[in-house]
Amino acid sequence: MFTGIVEELGEITAVETLDDACRFRLRGPVVTQGARHGDSIAVNGVCLTVVEHEGDEFTADVMAETLSRSSLGALAVGSRVNLERPTAVGSRLGGHIVQGHVDGTGEILGREPSENWEIVRISLPADLSRYVVEKGSITVDGISLTVVDAADDHFTVSLIPTTLALTTLGRKQPGDPVNLEVDIIAKYVERMLGDRVTGTGAAR
Q1: What DSSP string describes 67-103?
Q2: Intra-chain end-to-end CA distance of the chain, in Å
Q3: What does the alpha-carbon distance between residue 37 and residue 39 come to, in Å, rounded to a whole number?
Q4: CA–CA dist 169, 164 (Å, integer)
Q5: Which residues sit opposite 8 in a β-bridge?
Q6: Do strands 104-113 and 21-27 pair parallel, antiparallel, or not at all (unpaired)?
Q7: What distances in angstroms separate CA 171 from CA 13, 45, 81, 155, 167, one per listed residue?
Q8: Residue among 17, 20, 70, 25 nearest 47 (CA)
């Protein structure tokens, strides 16, 4: 489990294309401290498994399914990525509960800078809109954020200078894809309510 509090901006240093997958090599001096084979690290909000670790770099394999359902397929050598290690038991939950399981992708639609923050508007897939509410939580490229406004096809978030400086959202421009993970609690509630909400499943 993650919290959506990005630990560092990493970098893709190599991409190896395989038949039905690819292997990334990533540089991340912070997240590789004490890293071992089999550990999990979130890369732009996608939970990946450490295959190899040497110095301040690690490699991770990405299946075709993950490449097709996330924005990782657009990464290339030199791309900057948000990195986070799993939260430790007993540590503070600084963001919200994040699984590292991407629900879909959005697109940066626009940016509205101001003196002390910036409003970013992001497109929202139709099948995810019911999980996104004003003042609720959403994960964008692995960053735990609070929704400012929510519409059927987009939402906005307000970014403070720290988020702009220390994550990929400070660099993303209109047209760039982002990974989205909605609040898991909303999905559990929907499942438990069953057909009383969606018309499918069994209410218990």
Answers
A1: HHHSGGGG--TT-EEEEEPPPPTTS---S--B-S---
A2: 28
A3: 6
A4: 6
A5: 83
A6: unpaired
A7: 18, 16, 11, 19, 8
A8: 70
Helix (H) or strand (E) holding 162: helix 161-166
Tens-level pLDDT at each residue, the chain (204 residues): 899 999 999 999 999 988 889 999 999 999 999 899 999 999 999 999 999 999 999 999 999 999 989 999 999 999 999 999 998 777 777 778 888 999 999 999 999 998 888 999 999 999 999 999 999 999 999 999 999 999 999 999 999 999 999 999 999 999 999 999 999 888 888 888 875 655 554 443
Contact status, residue 155 vs residue 149, Cβ threshold 8 Å? yes
Output phi, psi for 48, to 5 deg.
-120, 155
DSSP 153: S
